[in-house]
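Worked example 3 (structure in, sequence out).
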């Protein structure tokens, strides 16, 4: 769920995402295609039971050709609302972890940990260091996954700079982790070791790569390259040798907030049929109380 400026922006993003999911499913050897859906709206202020039920009804109308799950702007509470209208949803019920404990269906903690492990490997490869103490990291987007990544980095001794279009997100990162807050448009040009994009895709383009200074790019965002053609420029932008002395990036105490009225305008998916269809009569859990994002 994201406050896209218009339907065209939402459709462009969801088609890129669905293509990426198709490739991921293929690489993982899953007996499924790949699919994605988006809801146009502010995830902090635009949710309603009617909106979430409309999304559930839409998913159900596809008859199992698309299975929805939590992503940017949604979590297990929203999945539980979808599950009141369709069984083609994952992440709506608690699950057992590898250590036997029970956790919610929210996948973001696992995603954040995976990104953290990948970031450490990238730092080892590019910067030749295993210790993250004093590592300067700029995180673009501190929602569920971005904030989880920030917590891992803070525990490892890294210094954090964050930006997000939602003030509540950056306030939590600032209050909880002591992160420095910068304006969204300034996050690219910070003199840091790692740039971690954890928000929307297509953020690496000719314009942003002109100002990007971090020698390592490692984040959770899907489709980070705006187009395949910018890959050589991206490689060149991150091929510089990091300096031993870095200036402290300038910080701002505020971030901009973008909001729009919620509406389920258009969802699209490219999917394969389920191996085993489920029944609408399957029991689903009651919705959980909404929590701050």
């Amino acid at each position: 769920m994201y406050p896209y400026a218009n339907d065209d922006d939402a459709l462009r993003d969801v088609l890129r995402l669905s293509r990426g999911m198709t490739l991921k499913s293929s690489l993982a050897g899953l007996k499924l295609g790949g699919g994605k859906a988006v809801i146009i709206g502010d995830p902090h202020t635009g949710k309603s039971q009617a909106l979430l039920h409309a999304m559930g009804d839409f998913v159900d109308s596809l008859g199992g050709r698309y299975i929805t799950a939590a992503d940017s702007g949604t979590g297990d509470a929203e999945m539980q609302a979808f599950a009141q209208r369709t069984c083609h949803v994952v992440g709506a019920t608690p699950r057992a972890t590898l250590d036997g404990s029970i956790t919610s269906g929210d996948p973001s903690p696992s995603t954040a940990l995976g990104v953290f492990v990948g970031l450490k490997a990238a730092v080892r490869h590019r910067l030749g260091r295993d210790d993250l103490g004093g590592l300067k990291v700029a995180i673009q987007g501190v929602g569920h996954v971005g904030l989880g990544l920030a917590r891992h980095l803070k525990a490892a001794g890294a210094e954090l700079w964050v930006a997000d279009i939602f003030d509540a997100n950056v306030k939590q990162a600032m209050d909880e982790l002591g992160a420095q807050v910068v304006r969204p448009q300034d996050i690219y040009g910070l003199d840091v070791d790692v740039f971690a994009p954890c928000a929307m895709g297509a953020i690496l383009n000719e314009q942003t790569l002109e100002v990007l200074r971090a020698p390592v790019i490692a984040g959770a965002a899907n489709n980070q390259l705006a187009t395949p053609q910018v890959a050589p420029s991206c490689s060149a932008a991150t091929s510089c040798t990091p300096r031993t002395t870095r200036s402290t990036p300038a910080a701002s105490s505020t971030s901009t907030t973008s909001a729009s009225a919620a509406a389920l305008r258009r969802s699209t998916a490219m999917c394969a049929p389920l191996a085993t269809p489920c029944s609408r009569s399957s029991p689903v859990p009651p919705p959980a109380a909404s929590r701050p994002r």
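Notes: The chain has two domains: 7-98+263-270, 108-237. The chain has a mean pLDDT of 81.
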